[in-house]
Amino acid sequence: ETPLSFPRSHFFKLKLKSSPPKIHLPLTCKASPKPLNSPKLSSLSSIKPYIEAQYKPILAGWLCSLVSVYSLSKSIPKIGTFSSSISKLSVTQLRNEGLVLGVFVLARLVATYWQQAFLWEAALSGVHDLRVNVFEEVLQGDLAFFEGGSGVLAGDIACRITSEANDVADAIYALLNTIVPSALQLSAMAMQMLVISPVLSMISAMAIPCMALVITYLGERLRKISKKSNLTMATLSSYLNEVLPAILFVKANNAELCESARFQRFAHSDLSERLKKKKMKALIPQIVQIIYFGALFILCAGSLLVSSGSFDACTMVSFITSLAFFIEPIQSYYWDVVYTVLLCYGITQDIGKAYNELKQGEPAIERLFDLTKFKSKVIEKPDAVDLDYINGDVKFCDISFRYGDNMPLVLNKMNLHIRAGETVALVGPSGGGKTTLVKLLLRLYDPLSGHILIDNHNIQNIRLDNLRRHVGLVSQDITLFSGTVAENIGYRDLMRKIDMEKVELAARTANADEFIGKLPQGYETNIGPRGSRLSGGQRQRLAIARALYQDFSILILDEATSALDSRSELLVRQAVERLMENHTVFVIAHRLETVMMAKRVFLLNEGKLEELNRPTLFSSKYDSLV
Ligand code: ADP
Ligand code: MG
Predict the structure, then answer these.
(1) Can you tell me the distance from the alpha carbon of 274 to that of 18, in angstroms, rounded to the nearest whole number?
(2) What is the interface pTM, i.e. ipTM, of the complex?
(3) Is 142 helix (H, G, I), strand (E, B) or coil?
(4) What spacing in Å lies between the alpha carbon of 323 and ligand 1's midpoint?
(5) Which of 200, 262, 478, 516 is the residue whose CA sits 20 to 30 A from 216?
(6) 428: CA distance to ligand 2 center in Å?
(7) How far is 590 from 624, CA to CA, in rounded Å?
(8) pLDDT digits (tens, 9 = 90+) for 215-252
(9) Judging by DSSP bridges, how do beta strands 449-454 and 584-588 pair with one another?
(10) SS3 at position 413
């Protein structure tokens, strides 16, 4: 019986949701706890430059905290005088005292508000810069990092850059708030306490080491729990990133229930880790409070001892100064003491909180910085040149390549020479290394040995963006973004200004103008996430138009027509034939029709290249391979 064949009570549903499914499911998507065997970086020192850059709001915030603490230390004695001598003061005196007190209280409120506003501005702006830098590094990083070599999933990256970066902001705020405002307030209060009653200050100070121990221990626990809950969250979002774009596939395979069970499992581990974290966060202040009640107890006991008159040798010191507590002038400060102790208790709790916030932010900092360590292995030489114009003569010389040290060779001493303006086709079994060849030409990877020449320039001596400008690529996996048709075609100029004439020309050449004209807003129509509002053939023609938008000399079509129906393919083929006249065209295909327009056809198999005579194209050898 399927779980949906009978109606379930609400309770049952709820119960089901709060426990993980018992079915066995492979966990294909799992965020890596620590993708690197890198040396552990001191996470706080790595964000130092980002914090330092925000010196203006930080200084402003700290200045406000100075005002706030000053107003506080001014208002405490006022409260003391007020409460102890209210009966002795005249109405005018009372009113004046009350006015002054009111001004200080108000000053404190305003200053505290601005202190927090400035410090948050510093923390959030710092994290903004950090985020932007990390993302830039990720984009410029190693392609292998995205292609699965590192085990870091896209969802994991997204999670680190979004929610975990916010943890970093909390940590920075906590840090900024501790360094000056809390320390300032604590020392001001301690001074006041010392002035009022040194011994009582000492007694309450005894609680501080105990509290430091407890906070350190709990903080460390919280750090561990926090790291784990970040991981479960990353796993959850990785999973969603993977499955949501494939919803059609899921439905077509009747896999809705299976996927929802898988989701439940990921969501449940996130739930339990998050709950652990919240419980820990609830526990810490309570424990701190117990200790402080201890301190207050000592205070009360001290005064009780004194009032009963039972001194002994051990309590001698505390007794002598506690006596001062009863002396008239100091007695009037009794409320000051209690008030100050209570305030100090609040501040210390703040510091405890800040420390926990920091401990919690630390793994987020580490994980965020991990993302920046996948430096691209493709390095641009400092003396690399720009080529304004190229003819499009491409030479692969003795190229060997593999994706990793222990991986098999994908290309093995491969040679290929494509003359300028020539159209060449490459065929071969899937997994034969055709796309790899393209990645090498674009210098997304560097070959293990051998070199690639364009117009007799080693591509390693050409500036990367210049090289990639001369090569137009329509890749096997079409990538379109949510945005308008024009934005997608003019993608290369998105940061500058999209040239609409070039967009329309490219669309016409790619035979895409016909369907674009029929879209509701033409070139301004939003094509939906990943271009989901277009058909496969339309998406592919849009991708071709995008490749044609730039002034390239070499055009690579990597199975660009594989997903097209025969009519669309004919349209694309016509487009390519038009381009063939004055460009070097490199067609990678597995369909014979596509290959027919090429002057020469090569077969890539087991890392070797072999030129096919036209008649052999139809031989059984070719059929068995493609
Ligand atoms: P083709 O385009 O001819 O189908 P590819 O060039 O994409 O083949 O792949 C060639 C081989 O390299 C395949 O065996 C594939 O599994 C492997 N490969 C491709 N990309 C990667 C990668 N990023 N990491 C490791 N192996 C890869
Ligand atoms: Mg391929």
Answers:
(1) 13
(2) 0.97
(3) coil
(4) 85
(5) 200
(6) 10
(7) 12
(8) 667 777 877 887 788 788 877 877 777 777 767 667 66
(9) unpaired
(10) strand
Mean pLDDT by 10 residues, the chain (626 residues): 33 41 42 38 71 93 92 70 61 79 89 92 91 85 68 70 81 79 73 65 65 70 79 79 71 72 85 84 67 58 57 37 30 39 52 66 77 80 90 93 90 92 88 90 91 94 88 81 85 81 91 91 84 84 87 86 73 77 84 73 87 64 50
Please report the atom of ligand 1 found closest to the CA of residue 404.
Answer: 25
Rg of the Cα atoms in the chain:
35
Ligand 1 within 6 A of CB of 181: no
Q: What integer pLDDT is reported at residue 500 of this predicted model?
A: 92
Ligand 1 geometric centre to CA of 433 (Å): 6
Burial 266-280 (b: 16+ CB within 10 A, else e): bbbbbbebbebbeeb
Angstrom distances, CA of residue 473 to CA of 136, 439, 452: 23, 10, 17
**Most informative mutation of 410, 438, 446 for ligand 1 (most atoms within 8 A of CB):** 410
- Ligand closest to 430 (CA) is 1
Give the residue, by CA position, lying nearest to ligand 1 atom 25.
403
Instruction: Say if ligand 1 is within 6 A of residue 433 CB.
Output: yes
| Candidate from 396, 436, 439 with most ligand 1 atoms within 8 A of CB, to mutate | 436
**Cα-to-centroid distance, 431 and ligand 1 (Å):** 5
The answer to whether the CB of 270 falls within 8 A of the CB of 233 is: yes
| Tens digits of residue pLDDT in 33-65 | 433 333 333 566 778 888 899 999 999 999 999
Where do the H-state alpha helices sit in 309-431?
316-324, 328-331, 334-370
Q: How far apart are CA 215 and CA 200, in angstroms?
A: 23
Structure tokens at 410: 């994908």
607 lines ligand 1 (CB under 6 A): no
HSE, side-chain direction, 13 A CA sphere, residue 343:
20
Q: Which residues contact 127 (CB under 8 A, 6 or more apart)?
A: 50, 165, 166, 168, 169, 172
